[in-house]
DNA sequence: AACTTGCGAAACCAAATAGTTGCACATATA
DNA sequence: TATATGTGCAACTATTTGGTTTCGCAAGTT
């Protein structure tokens, strides 16, 4: 079973869960209240997120709090950084073109 | 059929295609040579990437060049930016903790 | 001890996905 | 014109996915 960060964030519900628990840890029931889907479905999403280490659990009595492992989010950022270089360069090129046009008008 | 950037980059082959054509446009056959999969399979991936506007086509005779739409990659970056704030804050907090420990040692 | 609550896991199902094979259709080349 | 090349698209298949329903278990509550 493929379990990587990119596959995990492919699902919109999982992205919403990530955003939801980004600032504070939450229990499955509390998370499920925010979606019109069953607790079990959310539980499955949480399992997938846990398996790829995007979230971690913290047991408190019979409640389990899920929190975002922000460190893992950097993996996406790392992959993206190779393209960031490109779009910054292209932006500078566009900037150059624009200033050339500007100078021509003078 | 769901077609968004996140679903598009979920597949490892598609991520590889994106990286491959990031710097220069390529034809389906040229792209397929880099993978041990059929030309048709690559063609399907390119179709998905085109549908979500991550790549665009440029016809030249009977050849079709596919190029990355770097602008669309920023959408991922945009989503990620909400977490970037968090991990920068956490890093600063860690930094603060570390310097506190450092000062205690003095 | 009996009941309620919070949860994960297994079994099942419909839909989506990634791949293959075979075809059609242009554009080049002989 | 006949043939080769580059490509997209449809049909089919095996696998994966997201969801539901049902169950069991542990931790609290009565």
Structure overview:
Two copies of one chain form a homodimer. With 106 residues, chain A is mainly alpha-helical. Chain A has a single domain, classed as Arc Repressor Mutant, subunit A. Chain A has five helices and two strands; from the N terminus they run ααααββα. A two-stranded antiparallel sheet of chain A has the order 1-2. In chain A, a hairpin with a 2-residue loop joins β1 (55-60) and β2. The longest helix of chain A has 36 residues, at 70-105. The radius of gyration of chain A is 21 Å and the shape is elongated. At the A-B interface, α2 and α5 of A face α2 and α5 of B. Chain A binds a DNA duplex (30 and 30 nucleotides) through residues 1-2, 11, 13, 27-29, 37-41, 43-45, 47, 61-64.
Annotate the secondary structure layout.
Two copies of one chain form a homodimer.
Chain A: H1 5-8, H2 12-21, H3 28-32, H4 39-51, E1 55-60, E2 63-68, H5 70-105
Antiparallel strand pairs in A: 1-2
The structure holds a DNA duplex (30 and 30 nucleotides).
Largest contact between protein chains? A-B, 26 and 25 residues
The count of helical stretches of chain A stands at 5
**Which CATH class of chain A?**
Mainly Alpha
The oligomerization state is: homodimer
The total count of strands of chain A amounts to: 2
Q: What's the N-to-C terminus distance of chain A?
A: 62 Å
Approximately how much beta-strand content do the residues of chain A carry?
A: 5-15%
Mean pLDDT of chain A: 89
Would you identify the CATH H-level superfamily of chain A? Winged helix-like DNA-binding domain superfamily/Winged helix DNA-binding domain
- Number of domains as seen in the coordinates of chain A: 1
Give the SSE order of chain A as H and E letters. Answer: HHHHEEH
Shape of chain A: elongated
């Amino acid at each position: 079973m493929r379990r990587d960060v990119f596959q995990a964030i492919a699902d919109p519900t999982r992205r919403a869960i990530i955003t939801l628990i980004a600032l504070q840890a939450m229990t499955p029931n509390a998370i499920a209240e925010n979606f019109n889907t069953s607790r079990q479905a959310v539980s499955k999403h949480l399992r997938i997120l846990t398996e790829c280490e995007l979230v971690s659990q913290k047991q408190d009595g019979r409640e389990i709090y899920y929190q975002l492992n922000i460190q893992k989010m950097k993996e996406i950022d790392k992959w993206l950084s190779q393209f960031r270089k490109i779009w910054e360069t292209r932006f500078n090129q566009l900037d150059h073109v624009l200033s050339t046009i500007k100078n021509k008008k003078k």
